[in-house]
Amino acid sequence: MRPYFFFPLVFAISAQEIPTTLKDQQSLAVTIYNSNLALIKDQREVKLPKGLCQLAFQEVSAQIIPETAILRNLTSPKDFWIAEQNFDFDLLTPEKLLEKYVGEAVEVISVKPRANGEGQTEIRERATVLATNSGAVLQFADRIETSIPGRIVFPKVPGNLRARPTLVMNLNSGADRAQKLELSYLTGGLFWKADYAANLSADEKAMDISGWVTLTNQSGAAYPNAVLQLVAGDVNIVVPQPAPEARKMAFDGLATVSGAAPQMREENLFEYHLYTLDRPTTLKENQTKQVALLSAANVPVRKEYLLRGQSYYYSGSYGDLGDKLKIGVFVGFDNKESASLGKPLPKGVVRVYKEDSKGGAQFVGEDSIDHTPKNEAVRLKLGDAFDVTARRKQTSFKKLPASGKNNNVYESAYEIEIKNAKNEAVTVTVLEPMPGDWEILEKSHGFVKETSRTAKFLVNVPAAGSSVLKYRVKVMW
């Protein structure tokens, strides 16, 4: 049985550090989740000596979650084991380098004019770095300086500073040869979102839709020629990773809404959906890029005008309830194969466009959707109608005696005038949310009880005309 507690001493005395960089990389796979989390699988071929050594796995993500790192030997797993691993994220900068030399001697080179006024001469002095708090303090042989009079020359880079984030593993190799190693780990700083662009037809009865995936890399590392996969769904995470700060990004390959592109392959994964890009791609550090997700043409859509009331209308006397009320405009479609879709739609923003009289695509509104499985309906609010307005008023109200278990019993009547300035007739859906138990006593239009507390009226309004919805209701609670 190997005594584990002796490993740090053995490695500190005799272990040889073997560096590996992206030059050794054989393959790379990146799986990104919706929750600012990604799984990295980095395969490299590294020449390891037999026995104990330190492997410095360089150019890993700066936001790696170290406790998730797993190193596998795919070539010579026999007698291969890891005793300890450390994530070195103290990166080399001029400030850090000077800080590490507090109490140590450095050489300061300054330039001064020659006495004869011809040219300049270099002066080299040794100094001890006393402190770096809010500026450098240097002690020379004859004085103390609080600013650096020239450039500093350091004898070497301290071993605890790294140029790039590095995972250092103390391990034992069973063979002296080149070996294929795979490092898997979770990291923050990589995330994706779906965006959709939809073009409405001239008659607003169909649309073409394309979906794009926007990838953002703020993890502090680059991922060249990676197999890219995306997981759509709400994966549970015990400790959510903090969202990265907004900063200036490099944009690469941002998409337009026209033209067809290869779509990402989709498959089920547990209770989620996995999307795989059909080609390797490079995610540069501090970069945002887009890749095609899906596309569909001639998807049937439904246009809806909606006026929604409020439940407080029915418990008091209000009279005028508003003039020129906004009427929402919605478009809906079915995510079915029969409607030219039938694909899982990751959550994201759907932006809708329509061509003007000259053929130019104009933006007409956007809405967000949640993860939407196939065979579900999608409904988007694009804005409020300009030419279709409403006026609502309460024409009567009275409180009735208590009845049975109901202490609050009210009877009230309403009149909703809907005006249409368009050159075509429209149908407006009026949703009236009613509290408690309710009963429609009189009505000018038919209605359906959409839910236990909602009455739904459909009001046809002629072109350049108006219609009036009237009803009387008794509510009890």
Summarize the structure.
With 477 residues, the chain is mostly beta strands. It is built from 2 helices and 33 strands.
Q: What are the defining features of this structure?
A:
mainly beta; 33 strands; single chain; 477 residues; 6-stranded mixed sheet; 8-stranded mixed sheet; 4 domains
What does this structure look like?
There is one protein chain. The protein is mainly beta and 477 residues long. It folds into 4 domains: 4-29 and 41-89 and 162-187, no CATH class; 94-153, no CATH class; 210-296, no CATH class; 302-327 and 385-476, Immunoglobulin-like, CATH 2.60.40. It contains 2 helices and 33 strands. A hairpin with a 3-residue loop joins strand 2 (25-33) and strand 3. The longest helix has 8 residues, at 7-14. Mean pLDDT is 88; it is low at 1-14 and 243-259.
Gross morphology: elongated
Average per-residue pLDDT, rounded, comes to 88
What is the fold-level CATH name, i.e. the topology of the largest domain? Immunoglobulin-like
What is the CATH architecture term of the largest domain?
Sandwich
**Class from secondary-structure proportions:** mainly beta
Q: Give the C-level CATH assignment of the largest domain.
A: Mainly Beta
Specify the number of helices: 2
What integer value in Å does the Rg equal?
34 Å
Tally of structural domains: 4
| Number of distinct beta strands | 33
Distance between the termini: 76 Å
Tell me the helix content. Answer: under 10%
| Biggest β-sheet strands, sense, barrel | 8 strands, mixed
Percentage beta strand = over 45%
Q: What low-confidence regions span 5 or more consecutive residues with pLDDT below 50?
A: 1-14, 243-259
